[in-house]
Amino acid sequence: MEQIEHSGVVDHADAHAVYVKITSRSACGSCHARQACGMAESEEKIVAVQTSDAGRYAAGDSVCVGVRRGIGLRAVALAYVGALLVLLAVLVAANALLDWSEGVSALAAVAAVALYYAALRLFRGKIEHTIHFTITKI
């Protein structure tokens, strides 16, 4: 089973979860000229990994967090492809079928995407239960 893996450091752990701090960097983050360029970006994220072995991990442990590749593709589809489809559908429907002006159609499409993301946020709990992370010590 192919996995997407990232290394990180345990931030803290509780009875059922390990919270891992992962630093994601842009593609140019490893470039030697990144300080002079100013284009390099990095962002720290904390990922909660549900595991029954949470007691084995302590703050500062180096770990590797993985997720099945198919789950990552599903997340991309929900976050980007779904939003694009909503945007295009509302834009075409408002402009062509309802004969709204281009400006009003564009505003309606952006509002529909905002509602789409709000709906994703509301169902975040159900979506999170389908994503299962694995964790191993390095």
Brief digest:
This protein is α+β, with helices and mostly antiparallel strands. The chain is about 45% helix and about 30% strand.
From the alpha carbons, calculate the radius of gyration and give it in angstroms.
20 Å
Number of domains: 1
One letter per element, helices H and strands E, the order comes to EEHEEHHHE
Helix content: 40-55%
- Walk across the major sheet and give the strand order: 3-2-1-4-5
Spatial separation of the terminal alpha carbons: 20 Å
What average pLDDT do the residues reach?
A: 86
Q: How does the major sheet shape up? A: 5 strands, antiparallel
Poorly predicted parts: none
Number of helices: 4
Globally, the shape reads elongated
Oligomer: single chain
- Please report which band the strand proportion falls in: under 5%, 5-15%, 15-25%, 25-35%, 35-45% or over 45%: 25-35%
Task: Give the topology, please.
Blueprint: E1 3-13, E2 17-25, H1 34-37, E3 42-50, E4 62-68, H2 69-97, H3 102-122, H4 124-128, E5 133-137
Antiparallel strand pairs: 1-2, 1-4, 2-3, 4-5
How would you describe the overall organization of this protein?
By secondary structure, the protein is of the alpha+beta class. Helices cover 43% and strands 30% of the residues. The protein has helices spanning 34-37, 69-97, 102-122, 124-128; strands at residues 3-13, 17-25, 42-50, 62-68, 133-137. It has a 5-stranded antiparallel sheet with strand order 3-2-1-4-5. Strand 1 and strand 2 form a beta hairpin. The mean pLDDT is 86.
